[in-house]
Amino acid sequence: MAQQKPIDATTATLAPALLATARIGVRSSSGHFMKLLALLDNGSQTSFISEFAVQRLHLRKYRLSVTISGVGGSTVGESKSLVKFTVCSLIEPNFSMECSALVLSRVGQNMPSSRIDPTPYCDFLGLSLADPKFYEPGSIDIIIGADIYGALLRNELKRSKCGDSTAQNTHLGWVVYGRLPVGVSRQLSARLCATATAELNTLVQQMWKFNQMDDISSPSKMTEDEIYCGEFFKRTVRRDHVGRYHIRYPFKKDSDLSALFDSKCDAIKLYAYQQHRLQRDAKMNELYNEFMDEYIALGHMEQICEDKEPRYACYIPHHGVYKEGSSTTRLRTVFNGSRKYKSGLCLNDCLHVGPKLQNDLSTIILKWRMHRVGFMADIEKCFRQIRVDRRDTDMQRIIWRGGDERPTAYRLLTMTYVLTCSPYITIKVLNTLAEDEETDFPTASKILKESFYVDDCLHGGDSVEEAIDNQSKLRQLLHRGCFNLRKWSSNSNEFMQHLSSDDIQPDTCCNLNLDRETKALGIYWLCDTDSLTYKVNITPVSGFITKRQQLSDVAKIYDPLGFLAPIVITGKSLCQQLWISG
User: Fold this and answer.
1) Are both 324 and 207 inside the same structural domain?
2) Range of the domain at 323
3) Would you give per-residue pLDDT tens digits along the chain (582 residues)?
4) Backbone angles phi, psi at 315, to 5 degrees
5) How far is CA 132 from CA 92, 111, 128, 170, in A?
6) CB count, 10 Å around CB of 503?
7) Residue 35: CB partners within 8 Å, gap ≥ 6?
8) Which helix (H) or strand (E) holds 446?
């Protein structure tokens, strides 16, 4: 199935072309609406939308990892989620249609790249244009691909007097495209928006592996890099006078940290772009400010006063992620450690991932279900309770507004959760805490090692008294390392009565998708009835069912315990039959 990402190809011989753009309305299922500039591209077999638009519209994301390829089949990016929304015409009030699109952090460059003299297009200026200012640069937030492109077209076509440009009537209004006039072509370099085919067979293979339980019979032999990470952690970790852990990041020995020197200019540009966007969304701006103010108030970052840049430093861009279903933080700032700089490197490229230490989720859930009284909880701001050694904090600088509202440099003092090594270090710290305090808390230390999936706890007891004792000892143990367990849930009202209202999870339907890669896929624990349930959003049938749609619906069902095997196997068998039949 073809996937697409705009790429630039500058050439001295090709005459540049004007691509079709349209001003459209986009509405989410929650009722949020905004106007966006869309690029109409029938050369793309799927549609795309920017992360900015997704956040503004509060669109729900569905996990779908798709590799995006460019000219010659080379990989140029990856989308990790899909969203659904309604496209509305600003010209025809009664016209709208449903659309699914892959999410990209940024869809493309301005279209056109610079202002074009509209004089050669005087034949078209009297039409009801989909983009009345098609000749002026505009930021593209949506690419409408061939999946819905055909449904937008009307029969009428008009050509300019010189014959170089065409106006096509659509339900969105008239769109203008074609080769630029000779006098204009000297002003611009050519831009090519290309697509390439990504085989659905890869997605099918991923689907079969998706519900496959990990092999936990015997741990695999660690690589040299993984052994190095373990030794480096033991050599550099320390605890302060209050019990908090301080760590250093495991940078690769051959990594050239000086290659990140240009990250500051990049971060300042992205900050300016971000502030412009936030000014257009008062609610998002308010939540963003609250999050960053809390970050400073908790001492998790500090303003940089030194004028001189250190030898090695990296400025990390950041953006807000809106979490509509969160009971605590509705917006979280994500620091992008995978941002590539001019050197072609990003901060994550310079870090070791570390060995996989997290427990198998299926095993944790099965052991948890053996307790008559079960409870769930998670560690509050777990990653941020771990301090980063001062020698490494300059590798996680950011740009944020200062007291005078001007761009100001800050350094993050705690561990950043989007770095490639963060999950490994977090689990390693928790395991170290369990070992350090095992003498005083033998039972709680065992629970911390065996019943946690990163920062989420699933445990209990055979009686209310045992569950309460385990809960109390577990909290005391974690407090020794400056961690706090919160959002407690249980199938026992008697257990819950021993907790303060601030510690209780307000929702009695608890999400069991603890694996961060399967967060939105729908297995839940109903505390009141002590039962597991599943929530799956199936695509409404509005025509012919495609292979991709059928594959997507089957892949949405995440069933680590195998309770839904009869349903999942039936869906997979149907997929198999479709592929055999061609």
Assistant:
1) no
2) 224-517
3) 444 444 343 334 456 788 899 999 999 888 888 999 999 988 887 899 988 888 888 888 888 878 777 666 666 678 888 999 999 999 998 898 999 999 988 887 778 878 888 887 887 888 899 999 888 888 889 999 888 888 899 888 888 776 678 899 999 999 998 887 655 444 444 344 434 334 555 556 655 655 554 444 445 578 899 999 999 999 999 999 999 999 999 999 888 898 888 899 889 988 998 888 888 888 888 999 999 999 999 999 999 987 788 889 999 999 887 765 555 567 888 898 988 888 888 999 999 999 989 888 888 989 999 999 999 999 999 999 999 999 999 999 999 988 777 899 999 999 998 899 999 999 999 999 999 999 999 999 999 999 999 899 999 999 999 999 999 999 999 999 999 999 899 999 999 998 888 787 766 667 665 543 333 335 788 888 888 888 776 666 666 777 777 777 777 777 777 888 888 888 888 888 887 776
4) -100, 120
5) 15, 13, 8, 14
6) 16
7) 23, 24, 25, 26, 90
8) helix 442-450
Interior angle at CA 530, CA 525 and CA 534, nearest 5:
35
Query: In terms of Cα–Cα distance, which of 103, 352, 126, 411 is closest to 225?
Result: 352
E-only strand ranges, 6-112: 17-18, 21-27, 33-40, 47-50, 62-69, 75-89, 96-104, 110-111
Total Cβ atoms within 10 A of residue 236: 15
- CB burial class (10 A; 0-12, 13-18, 19+) of residue 165? buried
First to last CA, the chain: 14
Q: Please give, one letter per residue, the 3-state secondary structure of 251-284.
A: ECCCCCHHHHCCHHHHHHHHHHHHHHHHCCCHHH
Q: Is residue 19 part of a domain?
A: yes
Of 471, 493, 517, the one marking the end of a domain is 517
**With left for phi above 0 and alpha for psi between -120 and 50, is residue 447 left, alpha or beta?**
alpha
CATH number for position 57: 2.40.70.10
Tell me: do 544 and 461 sit in the same domain: no
| Residues 46 and 157 occupy one common structural domain | yes
Q: Which token pair is 205?
A: 């293979």
- The size of the chain, in residues, is 582
In a domain, 527, yes or no: no
Contact (CB, 8 A) for 188 and 64? no
**Are 292 and 161 in a shared domain?**
no
DSSP letters, 364-403, are HHHHHTTSSEEEEEEETTTGGGSEEPTTTGGGGEEEEE-T
Is cis: bond before 112, omega within 30 of 0?
Answer: yes
Look at residues 566, 530, 515 and name the one whose alpha carbon lies nearest to residue 368: 530
Query: What is the number of domains present in the chain?
Result: 3
Does the reported pTM lie above 0.85?
Answer: no
Do residues 180 and 96 share a domain?
yes
Q: Please tell me what DSSP assigns to residue 116.
A: -
Contact of 464 with 373, CB cutoff 8 Å: yes
Contact 61, 82 (CB under 8 A): yes
